[in-house]
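Hey L., structure's done. Input below.
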Amino acid sequence: MAILWKLEHDFKEELENAKNTAIYDEITIKELLDLGFNNNYLILSNGEEIELGYIDENGERSEELTEEQLGVKVYMKEDFGWYSDEDTDGDGYHIAKVYCFNKFDEELFENSDNQ
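Output:
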């Protein structure tokens, strides 16, 4: 039987590592999805939000993204906190908002079905 405080500690450490990767490492959208955030949105410089979705337990993506879109490098602008209501969905899951490293990559998402 697992000790609950240890499970909670392990979860918080894993979440912190995933957030740090999204904030400080130059990662692709595919890598962001592989980190396991439930909600992912790309914020374009004009303020539009593009839904990137998530990967489910079976490894299936919730959104149809092209290989080129999956290869775009992104970063999370700031830490979204732990348990605030600001950046959580109706189920209480954190919403990860990311931005393109290169503005010209935003063209891949213009007129996208994922808006």
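Residues 28-109 form one domain. The chain has a mean pLDDT of 83.

-- N.
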